Structure prediction request, 404 residues.
Amino acid sequence: MTNSDPTQSSPIEGSPTVLFASDAASSGAPHIETPVAYDGVLLAGFGGPEGQDDVIPFLRNVTRGRGIPDERLEEVAHHYRHFGGISPINAQNRALKAALEAEIARRGLGLPVYWGNRNWAPYLEEAVTDAAAAGHTTLLAVATSAYSSFSSCRQYREDFARVLTETGAGASLTIDKVRQFFDHPGFVEPFVDGVRAALAGFIADGIAPSAIRVLFSTHSIPTADADRSGPRDVDFGEGGAYAAQHRAVAEVVMAAVADVIPGSAEAVEWELVFQSRSGPPTQPWLEPDVNDVIAELPSRGVQAVAIVPLGFVSDHMEVLWDLDTEAMESAEEAGIRAVRTATPGVDPAYVSGLVDLVEERLHGTPAAERPHKTALGPWFDVCRPGCCENVRAGFKPAVSGVAP
Prediction:
């Protein structure tokens, strides 16, 4: 990353347009440092099928607007059918909702949590309609995605705007969104715990640190989308903010686990890898693929690999299939030991961290006082103009960001 500090993105001249925003967020300031009296939390998920009959309709929702025939969708459907047509993601979000409600109650915040998905029931439309019907006027959204890109941030913001418009709830209801939390301690700490345990286990079994690799895996996205992730006035280098954020968090994790490595932390090498690409072969996506890297590890003298699902907040289908199934098969074929570390899920540190993000906005915590583990944070409360453009469709109306 060069040129400027991403947390000091250029101010907006004139009167910025921030759709469906609270009075404070409508200013367009990168960080909202005045208290906002939110009266509800919107937990926004991706959604997933919960039976064999749901699989193709769900995949149609995910790929809507792209004209992909059912025959091609069936190529992906077998991942879900392998697990009875059930994605774990809805059950995980139910558990996360309950955990958030318990932590919010423990802190005496008095905020109800509404849960809605982008691609499967319960849909965002239901959650927003229910909140409006209950008389709520100022929601704070928590999306189950930690990093910056179109699919992991802006698409949620566009869906919030679409739902507020289509349901008519936008006449009485505003939605702000917490900052991307890739480097919040509550998100990072579970990964530190997982990598530390994996390395300690390998070393206890007599594997030399130099024969161990840590692969930090995240969802691949088109390189054109990756290059457009983050604010436009900052040069994050190859892969844009999306790749830069992952690399920064991986560095933090490896520095934190040095205590289990005899000698120097540099003895265990690591790499950022990608998984779950779904685009046509002619379209460039972020590389290298996790399976390709695993296949090469024996030639580098590697005997054991820790696979870290750094891009995921819970055990999505991409974790169960792409890592627990395909990547583990690749490791077996390569003749090396492999451990897949845990996702945050409902780890107490993660749940507490999400509620910390809610309290930041309730209290208007100054940016200088907000916890973050990398130099890229704390990320923006209100996304900057042109942030995370969808190359295929351009910009659509979105909440919690200054309109381009």
